[in-house]
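SECTION: protein entry
WANTED: fold as tokens:
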Amino acid sequence: MVRERPVVIAVCGCPGAGKTTIAAATAGRLGIPFLTRDEIKVGLGLSSASVAHDGRVRLDRDFHVAGGPVSRRAEGVMTDAVRLLAASGVSFVVESSVLSHELLGVLLTCGTRVLAVHVVAREAVIGRRLAARAAEGGAVDQQLLALFQRGEMKRSIFEPPAGVDAVVEIDTSDDGTPAVETIVAAVVALLGPSTTGGDPAPSEPATKRRPELPGIRRPGQSVESLRRG
């Protein structure tokens, strides 16, 4: 039986907030696998694609529907991949706009320690990013921009659910280099003291562990209280 307790960094947030950038930087910093629903969706789309007369790859119509059949299939595939990695004792980063109860249930069933990373940005910044994507002609990006402009993508929709071990909020409004040190520190805190005498985290010195770290909250603690702190 696998006795490891994987640490899973689940990155969520509104489209345009910068989830993929933060998730990829975190996975690279820790040297662990990175699962993202969007890439799985593209993989599904390519598997059923055809080539048009002009030589361009043509994806099925369903691919271009935000939240449509291909997106739902991608969610299912990602959940299966999450189950396999977690049950095998592998720590990893997973990114999806919403950390669904189904996905969280799989993680908890496998005995993982879940760090939810909620990526946020100011509304004006998200609107600008979505508009830039939509201007490139992507049908899904245009749909997401329309939803955002109608006020149907409130920040609260993408809040991590109860049941995770810790939550970190990362604000990307400044468009700077992804700041993942707070996430790494939270991972170190979840690992806890070493019981084998080895290095508690391959990417972070043990001296950086602290009982309470700025930007880290437990489920039920408001983000506003952290900001005031």
About this structure: The chain is about 40% helix and 15% strand. Helices lie at 19-30, 37-47, 69-87, 101-109, 123-135, 139-149, 181-191, 223-228. The two ends are 43 Å apart (CA to CA).
